[in-house]
Amino acid sequence: EPKIKMMGIEAIKSSTPQVCREAMKELFKVIMTGSEDNTQKAIAQFKDHFKSLPPHMIAFPRGVSDVSKWQDKDVIYQRGTPMHVRAALLHNHHVKKKRLDNKYELIQNGDKIKFIHLMKPNPVKENVIGFKEGFPVELGLDKYIDYELQFQKTFIGPINMILHTLKWSDEKQTTLQDFFC
């Protein structure tokens, strides 16, 4: 079996969730040996699997620095705070607010975290939340995880850069003729 050497693409970046990196590597094999239709079927199959995964498996891994620099005592975070740092500050604020800091470690400068997109409205009134080891289920945010946006940003975005080069689409396009067939 031929080996594929990947450089500079999302499939090998540590900022992409591991499950997506593995799925991208498998999808590249389908792209190289299959058709657009096979590729679309593989993407749809992975999407179904992705939506069944727990938050810690689909969240963006990141390192955070300057957590204390962006913190604001009155409004949690300052304007212009990077998303992953904002996610960390929101985690810390809500974990302290719910008195869960004995269960969930607060995020500090230099920590490795994961963050995930949320649908609004939700109990924290924000579009993102971060966590260290475990997703804080006590915050009641598990049913607000934006799986669709998370899938778009972690998987479809990077894959589409390759598919667009081939003039392929990530999903079957409906045409007017399809309504009459």
User: Can you give the helix content as a percent range?
Assistant: 40-55%
- Roughly how many Å apart are the termini? 40 Å
On the 0-100 scale, what is the average pLDDT? Answer: 92
**Regions with little confidence, pLDDT below 50 for 5+ residues:** none
Strand content: 5-15%
Number of helices: 7
Q: How do the strands line up in the largest sheet? A: 1-4-5
Compressed to H and E, one letter per element, the order equals: HHHEHEEHEEHH
What about the largest sheet? Answer: 3 strands, antiparallel
Query: Any idea what the radius of gyration is?
Result: 19 Å
Q: Structural class given helices, strands, pairing?
A: mainly alpha
Query: What global shape is seen?
Result: elongated
Total beta strands: 5
Characteristic key phrases:
5 strands; three-stranded antiparallel sheet; two-stranded antiparallel ribbon; 44% helix; elongated; 181 residues; mainly alpha
Written description of the protein model:
About 45% of the residues lie in helices and about 10% in strands. With about 180 residues, the protein is mainly alpha-helical. Strands 1-4-5 form a three-stranded antiparallel β-sheet. A two-stranded antiparallel ribbon has the order 2-3. Strand 2 and strand 3 (about 75) form a beta hairpin. Helix 1 (about 20-35) runs antiparallel to helix 2 (about 35-50). The chain is elongated and about 55 Å long. The termini are far apart. The model has no long low-confidence stretch (mean pLDDT about 90).
Short description:
With 181 residues, the chain is mainly alpha-helical. It contains seven helices and five strands.
